[in-house]
Each structure stands twice: as C-alpha cells, then as structure tokens.
Amino acid sequence: MPRCRILFICLAFVFVLSCGPSPSGRDGSPIDVLQPPEMESRKPEIIRLSRDGYDITITRKAGYTVRGIVVGRENYTSGWNALISPADVALCWGKIAENETYRRLKWSQGNRWYFWRAGEDFGYSNDFIAGHSSNNHLIPATPNLEKAVKTLRVGDAVELTGHLVDVAATKKSQDYWWRSSMTTSDRGEGACEILYLTRLRVHGKVYQ
Fold first, then answer.
1. Under a CB-based contact definition with an 8 Å cutoff, are residues 127 and 133 in contact?
2. Considering the entire predicted model, what is its pTM?
3. What is the C-alpha separation between 91 and 96, in angstroms, rounded?
4. Cβ contact 69:155 at 8 Å
5. Which string of b and e fits 5-21 if b means at least 16 CB within 10 Å?
6. 135 CB-near residues (< 8 Å, 6+ apart)
7. If residue 174 lies in a helix (H) or strand (E), which one and from where to where?
C-alpha cells in the first residue's frame, strides 16, 4: 500500500477520534433499566447564558437520574431552544424495557414530541406506556456531553444524570419559556422532562 494512502488513513482515523466524545472514566456495572427515575428535591439554582443574542436563564429545580433503553434520538437545529438543547432522547424502563418489550412498539419523534404505536395485542395500556417512558429534552452541560449524546443509538442502555430545569429566554424584548415536567405520569403538552445533563453513562463509559 502506498505510503501516502497509509498516512491518509491514519490521519482520518485520528480525526474521527478527535471529533468523538472523551470518556472521563469507566463504570462497567450493569445499568438497571427496570427501576423508575429518581428525583431529589433541591433548592433552586440559577445558570445564566448568552447565545446568539438570547439572554437565557436556566433554573435547576430537582436532581434527576433516569436509567433506560434508548427508543429514539432526534437532533434539532432550529428554534431558540436548539441553542441549548440540540437533541431529545426518548427512553423506556421497567416492564416496557424488560425482555425487549419496547421493540413491539413503533416509536417516533418530531417537533419536540415523541410518539408510539402499539398493536391490538400489546398487553399494556397507553397510560402504562406513558408512565414507563419519557422524551427528554437534553441540555448538555459541556460540549463533550453534547458529543456523547449524539452517539446514542436505539437499544443502548443508558444512565442520564443532572437536574430538571425550567428555562426562560429573552431577545429584543420578546420572552420565551420552557418548563420541565416533574412527573413521569403526565401526558400531552408539557409532559416532557427538560434535563440539564451533567453525566452520561453508556457502554461502560462515563462522560461529563
């Protein structure tokens, strides 16, 4: 093989590695996707950002950890909230994750919503599915976490840790609001969790 071709392949490999997320550590313990999300009440804390002319205030309301199977990931580039939340990740846990039951459902995402479709012989109600799944609007705390989020694939067992937050933004006297759900039992508009993500675990690797 010509030297220039070998050099090109090596440089391309290094480029791919440099563009990917860097793990901060390893944790090979099993991710228990059968357990429900964990929420811990905390005193509200404020994070202030400026992005593309928007003054953004993020209010952290509760500590939150969710473990589940990825049933969808949708990237977003339009809308003011895409400046801080470039992807939604839909997860399921409990009976819906057990024995790959989630594969009997057809999942989809779009416009910051997630959807499922079940056959007539599916053994669980829509309310049950809603209580054992969620669409998470992720706000990565670091660029490295954003890269890690964008590597997630359907079927991955993941652990997401951070804070449920409310978001307010202002640009040229125009106000915008985005509020997180605080329960997994609700449905419809406003039922998604907005998660300020500080830690992600997948495939035995930890990203921060």
1. no
2. 0.89
3. 10
4. yes
5. eeeeeeeeeeeeeeeeb
6. 72, 88, 89, 90, 109, 112, 113, 114, 192, 193
7. strand 174-179
Alpha-carbon torsion, ordered 127, 132, 135, 138, to 10 deg: 150
Separation between Cα atoms, residue 57 and residue 89, nearest integer Å: 22
pLDDT in tens, 113-149: 999 999 999 999 999 999 999 999 999 999 999 999 9
* Tokens coding 14: 């290094």
Instruction: Give the pLDDT confidence of 16-50 residue by residue, as tens digits.
Output: 445 899 999 999 999 999 999 999 998 999 999 99
* DSSP 8-class letter at 7: H
Task: Give how far the C-alpha of residue 80 lies from the chain's centroid of Cα atoms, to the nearest Å.
Answer: 18
The one-letter amino acid at 89:
V
Residue whose structure tokens are 């009976």: 95
Please give the Cα distance from 89 to 82 (Å, whole number): 14
Dist. CA 61–CA 127, nearest whole Å: 26
Element (H, E) at 9: helix 3-19
Q: Which two tokens stand for residue 12?
A: 């391309």
Would you place residue 184 in the very low, low, confident or very high pLDDT band (cuts 50, 70, 90)?
A: confident
Determine contact, residues 100/70, Cβ cutoff 8 Å.
no
Tally of domains within the chain: 1
Q: Which domain holds residue 185?
A: 3-207
